[in-house]
Automatic annotation (TrEMBL):
Keyword Cytoplasm carried by entry: no
Secretion signal span: none
Residue intervals passing through the bilayer: 61-80, 92-110, 116-142
Domain of life where this protein originates: Bacteria
Protein known as: Gx transporter family protein
Amino acid sequence: MLTVAEAAIPLPLPGVKPGLANIVTLIVLARWGWREAVWVALLRVVAGSLLLGQFLAPGFFLSFSGAVASLVTLGFAMHLPRRWFGPVSLSIFAAFAHIGAQLVVARLWLVPHDGVFYLTPVFAAAAVLFGVVNGLIAARLLRDRPAA
């Protein structure tokens, strides 16, 4: 639902999205673990692309590569000390991995020129901003509703 709602938000730059559905992934990761978070994230990408009519289009592969990179990063980062690394830092790590993978896929497949990497500062700023916001929302939701 969040993926479809996010598609209606006007984007300042193609590929710069708030990543609201990643809040759900962070909550699932914290409550039920990495395997469940993988299922949620990958099903979200597939279902969202089907609902938006973009399955197997370039946007699907960009989203899929970003989700896989985020999940791999979260898989490693979740083993960091929780005292210093919580939902906000995990969200930022995931956002950077997501955008990094998308830039690499865009360069290798869609834009055969290194100029695509000139967008890195804009995407990095968006990753920090949205990573912090999404991480704060996830932390708040985790705090307000303890695991059953």
